[in-house]
Design a protein that fits this description.
The structure is a single chain. By secondary structure, the chain is α+β, with helices and mostly antiparallel strands. The protein is built from two helices and nine strands. The chain has one domain. Strand 1 and strand 2 form a beta hairpin.
Length: 196
């Protein structure tokens, strides 16, 4: 009988060890790998979205800094200048219309005559702000906005307000950026002539 009990104990132990093996089944492993893959896919796409948004933000910031610099240089020249004139498309002096003009001229402190207008940019398919400066009979033309700033047709308006201290209201609208990173902008500023 003791031999029989011993054989039973060995059989019971053998069944115990067979039943007590711990581990994951193939289905459990496949489900956990699938869940992990989905979570990583979502996390990776979120990271790429954040990186692209950061790139767009830096690009737009750079372009807007260029536009602000161009407007600041315009404002400085206008503030120190005088004899403000509204011009028609051909450069003829006109009475400043109530709804503004897209071509504006004035005399600078050093006697130069500057005209600001929106013209088709020669390097890109779009418009830029062009400065035509005439001094001592010599005229120089330059675009004061970068290639990445596209001014709308009629997107710049100058409103001249005469008085004891003349003012010029400038509005600019357009888009800035590159290809898929384009952002619209509308800027308005007022320049008051400095009297010395």
């Amino acid at each position: 009988m003791s031999l029989f009990l011993r054989i039973m104990n060995v059989n019971n132990m053998h069944q115990f060890f067979l039943q007590s093996k711990k581990g994951f089944t193939l289905i459990e492993v496949l489900v956990s790998v699938a869940v992990f893959s989905i979570v990583m896919l979502i996390a990776t796409s979120a990271v790429f979205t954040i990186v692209n948004a950061n790139k767009k933000s830096h690009s737009i910031k750079s372009v807007m800094t260029n536009l602000n610099f161009a407007l600041e240089s315009m404002m400085r020249e206008i503030r120190m200048g005088g004899s403000y004139e509204c011009l028609d498309g051909g450069g003829g002096v006109i009475t400043c219309p109530v709804d503004g003009t897209s071509t504006f001229g004035f005399t600078t402190q050093d006697g130069s005559y500057i005209v600001y207008s929106v013209r088709a940019h020669p390097d890109v398919a779009g418009n830029g702000i062009r400065q035509d400066k005439t001094k001592d009979g010599q005229t120089s033309e330059e675009y004061i906005t970068s290639d990445e700033v596209m001014i709308d047709n009629g997107g710049i308006k100058f409103y001249v307000i005469d008085g004891d201290q003349p003012r010029v209201l400038i509005t600019v609208s357009g888009s800035a950026g590159k290809d898929d990173e384009m952002s619209r902008f509308n800027i308005q500023t007022t320049v008051t002539k400095r009297t010395i």
